[in-house]
Amino acid sequence: MKPEVGTLLEALPYIREFHGKTVVIKYGGAAMTEPELREDFARDVVLLKYVGLNPIIVHGGGPDITAYMRRLNMPVEFVGGLRVSDADTVEIAKMVLVGKVNKDIVSRINRHGQPAVGLSGDDGQLFRVSTMTGPGGEDIGFVGKIERVDVGVINHIAEDYIPVIASVGADRIGRSHNINADEAAGAIARAMGAYKVMFLTDVAGWLRDVDDPSSVISEASADDVETALLTMEGGMRPKLQACIEAIHGGVTYAHIIDGRLPHSLLLELFTDAGIGTKVRPAS
Ligand SMILES: Nc1ncnc2c1ncn2[C@@H]1O[C@H](COP(=O)(O)OP(=O)(O)O)[C@@H](O)[C@H]1O
Ligand SMILES: CC(=O)N[C@@H](CCC(=O)OP(=O)(O)O)C(=O)O
Prior knowledge:
Blueprint: H1 3-18, E1 22-27, H2 35-50, E2 54-59, H3 62-71, E3 78-79, E4 82-83, H4 87-111, E5 116-120, E6 127-131, E7 144-149, H5 151-158, E8 162-166, E9 168-170, E10 176-178, H6 181-192, E11 196-201, E12 219-221, H7 222-229, H8 236-248, E13 253-258, H9 264-270, E14 277-280
Parallel strand pairs: 1-2, 1-11, 2-8, 5-8, 11-13, 12-14
Antiparallel strand pairs: 3-4, 6-7, 9-10, 13-14
Helix pairs in contact: 3-4, 6-8, 7-8
Bound molecules: adenosine-5'-diphosphate (ADP) and ligand 2.
């Protein structure tokens, strides 16, 4: 048998399993720096829609926000993987995420043959946020925690389009907040009752030792993750926190995969081997 046919046949049971299912995909800033990878990503998402999945994209753009802040000589600070955000920082985050990154993703998906629609928390009042603190209770400014997602808005759009969601939104009195895109993806997956949530990032997965790329933890239970979160810092923290949020809300699996790898989405979804870290409910 030709190897290409083998690959398609290997994918068939997965296509059947995932048909009609909602998959929330967090597309991370660190994995979106290469134009070629951005193109591959858009093509993969279109393929998912064509084979009958319901992909919902939630994106970040942290490195882009940092680059613009530096141009404006603004101080850049993170606490527990969350950007400290005063009102000026929120304004930059909003301009970069909604105006630049979101439109780039939307137009690439459009070009590959499925229409996409960009949304932020403000559109159709998609989500409402409250102000959150850092992991140690620190004041980190206008950083939002999603309190409520209007899934009706996403379902309505997803009937005909691929929703592409930027992680900014407002609180009850209309103040804009910067939301970590991992937190947004976890909350949206939970609210949507998604089958899976997948985080594309710039490492091979959750690493046992952050300095050893070969130390990927291929599978972990929600309990393992909760234990690790007690001491974890850096960008992996909000990702694992979001995995827990999603799994506790009924999402079957959460995956952290290497967005630097071309077609990583397809490799995880449609091959027997899979890639990265899979978080499952506590057994
Ligand atoms: N145990 C860990 N395993 C993997 N990555 C980790 C770990 N601890 C901290 N990190 C950091 O988390 C980063 C990924 O998070 P982040 O930079 O926020 O990515 P993204 O932009 O994709 O959301 C990695 O590049 C790595 O530096
Ligand atoms: C509060 C907070 O941390 N907001 C993030 C939003 C963007 C984001 O999460 O981007 P990545 O997924 O590329 O890291 C930030 O300002 O960087």
